[in-house]
Amino acid sequence: MIATMLIAHEGRSPTVHPTAYVAPTATLCGDVRVGAGCRVLFGAVLTAEGGPVELGEGSIVMENAVLRGTRRDALILGRQVLVGPTSYLTGCRVEDEVFLASGSRVFNGARIGTRSEVRINGIVHLRTVLPADSMVPIAWVALGDPVRIFPPEDHAEIWAVQKNLDFPGYVFGLDRPADGESLMPAIAERFGRSLGLHSNDQQI
């Protein structure tokens, strides 16, 4: 039998409730807490990058999903949440009975209310609050607090809201660059330094 990849990071190790199932090709790194009755399937990656990842009772993380806690924002799933295949969640809070369909994306500081749905390839952007019983249609984008939900082709309207949410400042602590300049050298240096802490990780 192949063992699940459990990795200690920054002195913290994953914990898995005895009634949970974690597939042998899943990876749990750092302060990851898998609750009672949870299921974490093949290829899923749950990584605590300075902030914890917590799965509430009965939650399911499907194949190849990535869940990342950050120093600024923990990643918290409530009870009976389903995270679909290839979904990506970082530094967000998801309340009970939420459905996040295949390919959904939920970004730093976002909060998703109870019984909400984010359908295939839907996006809940940075610092967005999706109230209980909300729905983001297939490939649409939810932005802001109060939330507005846009079809993907409305780029100008999306950017008008998104710009004020300050992704580079909130996530990386950087000012948006002047026109014609790139933020990527600073992001690569800062994010690379943080990710370099994994060089001291230990497999359990």
Automatic annotation (TrEMBL):
SUPFAM superfamilies according to UniProt: Trimeric LpxA-like enzymes (SSF51161)
Domain of life from the UniProt record: Bacteria
Coiled-coil boundaries: none
Residues in the signal sequence: none
InterPro entries reported in the protein's UniProt record: Transf_Hexapept/Carb_Anhydrase, Trimer_LpxA-like_sf
Protein name: Gamma carbonic anhydrase family protein
Organism: Streptomyces flavochromogenes
